[in-house]
Amino acid sequence: MKRIFIIGLFIFAAFASVSAQSGRKITATPTPMPKTVEETGYSESKPNNGSTRIMPPNMQKKETLQDKAQKTTQTSDSTTDADDEVIKVETSLITIPVSVFDRNGLYIPGLKQENFKIFENGIEQEIAYFGTSDKPFTVVLLLDTSISAKRILPEIKQAARAFVDQLKPQDSVIVIEFDGDVEVLAEATNDRQTIYQAINRANIGNGTAIYDAVDFSLRKRLRKIEGRKAIVLLTDGVDTQSFSSSYDKSIREAEEADVLIFPIHYNTLNDTLNDVQLSGGVSRRQIINDYALGRQYLQDLAASTGGTMFKAAATADGLREAFEGIAEELRKQYQIGYYPTETGKTGERKQIRVRINRPNLIIKARDSYIVGATSTK
Question: How many CA atoms lie within 13 A of 182 on its CB side?
Fold first, then answer.
């Protein structure tokens, strides 16, 4: 009997070999598919669609990390212009702002450190700092007052005031307008009447220097301010007159800044196509291409900083809800800090993933940074 069994196995093996060589299919046990994130019981952040994110070393010393913060070397060199102060910082502390929403876009409060895990290049990192307190923030209201916005300027002003209405008394606002030039209408203040008056003073001018305006807001105003920061940019996105910055340079500056950018996109394409003064003799095809580039720029600003782009064409209620969401996100964002287990080489890009032990959540966070032991600011 044993001999018959062995012979049977030999015949089966030979048949299988011949079948494989002749191209016939042999039914095999299917390999189980990997489970989805929802099936595993957790949610993860996804790579953004923007360009490479660059995260400079964290400049804020955490009281809970005094022992490690002593390793930080910081030097500063002042120049004749206070706005151009150069600060060099060396530290290994990486901080990640994280926003968490359900599938309906509602912010998820109350999460604790034990709900989070953070991974760098696929390796889990120890969370050294976690913050969830409801802190005030500073926001730049960046208003497009170029000639292409002449019809929609009342809407821009109304939307800006609507956003201010969502803020708490301790939140601060800087009001900046831009056409061909960039002008500060109000420095950081939480006085609502001062903010409203500044918004009302915005006037139409010639040219559009949006790249310069974004760069100025980040480097000349928000860089010196500690705490949570954001830019709410109300514009059609088209640049015609920037001199000191460019598309790539301003995106890179945004990537390096710890600032969320929320563009509110106004579509003025038809106005420009139908107005000889606005078109300035530029071909219809070029105008369309310029507006497509403007929309892409706003999308890149949002993606590069962890913000969101909104369309002003939504109903008034929809835009108001967007402002409510922006204010709540800024106020209640989670902050996660860690010291990388591997420092890496200067210029090396490292991937970041944030995981939460709950399914079906949407996690907004930076997805990478580039190692730089010294950051010149």
Answer: 24
